[in-house]
Each structure stands twice: as structure tokens, then as C-alpha cells.
Amino acid sequence: MTSFTARIAGLATLALAALPMAALSTAAHAASVRIGDLDLASARGAAVYEQRIDAAAGRFCQDERGLSQRAACIAGVRAEVNEKLAQRQAANPVQMASRR
């Protein structure tokens, strides 16, 4: 019985530890960042992209009460938006035309 109780306690601990990670992974699903009009290869386009992420993360995380929770929320949104962009770029690579 002790082994069974230890396993249940271990599973409960893992489940509780996973909750903040689950919250971070779903953060950017409600925050959207428009990028179709940006040239991300330019300094200006990259700067506007960062501003849009900051604005979307700020709106999404506005209800977080503590500074550390808000910072974690914003970091999670930023990470997921950047990950989604990387996945999109990998799926649709831009082919540069070469001049001869």
C-alpha cells in the first residue's frame, strides 16, 4: 500500500508541476500577432514585430496579479509566438531568386 500511495503522490506532484507549463503553452493561442505586412528581414520590420508581440502579450497577461506571474506570462507568450513563426518559416521557406 505504501508503494501505491507513493506512486499516487508522485503523479499528483507531476501533475501540479505541469500546470504552469500548460498555461504557458496555451498563452499565445489567445494572443495573435499580425505579420503578413512586415519584412522581418529588415530592422524596421523586426522592430515592429517585437512591438506587436509586446502589445499582444501585454493585453493577454493584463490580469496577472503579481509581477513575476506577469513576467512569466509575457515570456511564455513571446516564446510561443516566436516558436510559431519559426515553424511557419520552416514550413514555407522563402526562395531567393539568384541573378546570373
The number of domains is 1
What Rg do the Cα atoms give? 20 Å
Shape: flat
The proportion of strand residues reads: under 5%
Helix content: 55-70%
H/E topology pattern: HHH
Query: Largest sheet at a glance?
Result: none
Secondary-structure content class: mainly alpha
Number of helices: 3
For the secondary structure, the number of strands is 0
- End-to-end span in angstroms? 76 Å
Q: What is the averaged pLDDT score?
A: 75
Low-confidence region ranges: 24-29, 95-100
In quaternary terms, these chains amount to single chain
Please give a quick description of this structure:
The protein is mostly helical and 100 residues long.
How are the elements arranged and paired?
Elements: H1 2-27, H2 43-60, H3 67-91
Helix pairs in contact: 1-3, 2-3
Descriptive notes:
The protein has 100 residues and is mainly alpha-helical. The protein has one domain (2-85). The chain contains 3 helices and no strands. Helix 1 (2-27) crosses helix 3 and helix 2 (43-60) crosses helix 3 (67-91). The longest helix has 26 residues, at 2-27. It starts with a helix and ends in a 9-residue tail after the last helix. Residues 24-29 and 95-100 have low confidence and may be disordered.
